[in-house]
Amino acid sequence: MPYFKDEQEVYRYLGALFVDLLADEELAPRFAEANTIVQYQCRKPASQITIKLLPAEPLQVDFAQSELQPEVVMAMDADLAHRFWLGKVNVTFALARGQIKTTGPVAKILKLAPLVKGIIPVSYHTIANPPLPAPVAFQVKSGSSQYWLALIVMNTGNAIASVQVKTAA
């Protein structure tokens, strides 16, 4: 399931992240040292965020179309961009695998990657009985027969340990 349902969610979450980073008194100077204009072109959903990271000028974030001329362009799926900013993507591997397509000076592209480390603290915990998006549903997997049954259980919110099927006697 994708992280973002439409481009507005990309701007609401990833875009807000950039706005907050550039407003931070400690982090903004670190990003300005990149000395470039970078554009993130995302797919699934299609969206674009352009960021001016120049030390002698005010930092700027544009959503969708921008008058800024990017020196570095990074194209990737929005879900990969989400994981990238969580520090969960090895940029070198993603570039080698073609998950991230880039244009611009390689040195500046690689200079952007270390800025991500430790920016967003992430912690995970299990939520017991979370609200469900829909009623619990079952799908019979293809290949099932009168002798063998495989089910996909959807919208549970929690891990399913077992399913018991009873038939009328």
Keyword list:
two-stranded antiparallel ribbon; alpha+beta; five-stranded mixed sheet; 169 residues; 5 helices; single chain; elongated; 7 strands
Description:
- The chain has 169 residues and is α+β, with helices and mostly antiparallel strands.
- Helix content is 29%, strand content 21%.
- The strands form two sheets. It has a five-stranded mixed sheet. A two-stranded antiparallel sheet has the order 6-7.
- A hairpin with a 3-residue loop joins strand 1 and strand 2.
- It starts with 6 loop residues before the first helix and ends in a 15-residue tail after the last strand.
Count all strands and give the number.
Answer: 7
State the secondary-structure class: alpha+beta
* Helix fraction bin: 25-40%
Order of helices and strands: HHEEEEHHEHEE
The percentage of residues in β strands lies in 15-25%
Straight-line N-to-C gap: 39 Å
